[in-house]
Structures are given as structure tokens and as C-alpha cells.
């Protein structure tokens, strides 16, 4: 459940239709200078998983070959310059209507893999160029997080990630 803290005046400024509750420190001190608004309470239609991710590409044919043949994503269908792939239940839409594309700085799409080293070897055999070697990113209490990064033909940053247990 996600909660967003917002500052407000004592109980007079409430968001209509969204229940609020006092924060623990407000109960302890008696001051009401902040409330927590819970996004899933009072909403008749809560959000679910992502259904589709749109990615602009300069050349739909080139990107269709990269995502379909090099990465091996199952193609769902193509409609003009729009190409749709299945990413384990989330649809990836490549929009080839743009003449020029700038990759969004700081944006990255991470693909989960069971074992990162064999996945890297297979993609390298399909001419995917990696920017680094698979490396340990973080040790968690129950697993290690491994990643490696590469780019698509338009410069969009992509990654493979393994949660190694």
C-alpha cells in the first residue's frame, strides 16, 4: 500500500472522498500538522499492474528485428508503424512514427532472467552489445541482485537482472 505524506492545516483541509488518518506523532503530541492519505482507500477502481509500455523508435522495422530476433520477445502484432511484443504479460509497444528519437536520460527497462550469464552469452551470440559485464549490484537479506546493461538501436537503455537466491 502506498501512502503519500501531505502537509495541511488542522483537519480543515481534507481531500474530498479520500479518508485520512493521523500520523503516530500527531497522536502522541496532539498536533495535527500532517496526515497520511492512503491511495487504495476510498478508491472504487484501484490501479493494477502495468498493461503496456510505449517506447518511441525511429525505425519500426529495425526495432522489430532487434526486439523480436535479437532479444527473442514474442511479437503480438504490428499495425503500421506500431509493433507490439509480449513481455511476460506486459505489452511493449514500439512506436515507429517518430523521425528522430532521443533516449530518455535516467530511464531503463529491466528484463528479468533466471540466470544472467547464459542469457548474456545467448544475446551476445545474437550480436547484442553490452556496456558492461554482469555484476553484483546489491546483497539483500534473501538474494543477490545482478545486472548488466545494453542499448537498443535508438539508444534506449535496457538491462538484464537476476535475483540470485
Structural class based on helices, strands and sheet pairing = alpha+beta
CATH architecture of the largest domain: Roll
The low-confidence parts are 1-15, 21-27, 29-38
Beta strand count: 11
The CATH class label of the largest domain is: Alpha Beta
DSSP summary: helix tally: 3
Report the major sheet. Answer: 4 strands, mixed
Proportion of helical residues:
10-25%
Placed side by side, the strands forming the largest sheet appear as 4-7-6-5
N-to-C span = 26 Å
State the domain count: 2
Spatial extent as radius of gyration: 22 Å
* Mean pLDDT across residues: 83
Approximate shape:
globular
Q: Determine the CATH topology of the largest domain.
A: 2,3-Dihydroxybiphenyl 1,2-Dioxygenase, domain 1
CATH superfamily of the largest domain: 2,3-Dihydroxybiphenyl 1,2-Dioxygenase, domain 1
Q: Secondary-structure element sequence?
A: EEHEEHEEEEHEEE
Q: What percent strand?
A: 35-45%
Q: Any chance you could write out the topology, listing elements then pairs?
A:
Blueprint lengths: L2 E5 L12 E3 L1 H6 L4 E5 L13 E5 L3 H11 L4 E5 L2 E6 L2 E6 L12 E5 L3 H10 L9 E5 L4 E8 L5 E8 L1
Parallel strand pairs: 4-7, 8-11
Antiparallel strand pairs: 1-3, 2-3, 5-6, 6-7, 9-10, 10-11
Organism: Rhodanobacter ginsengisoli
Keywords: Metal-binding
InterPro entries: Glyas_Bleomycin-R_OHBP_Dase, Glyas_Fos-R_dOase_dom, Glyoxalase_1_CS, VOC_core
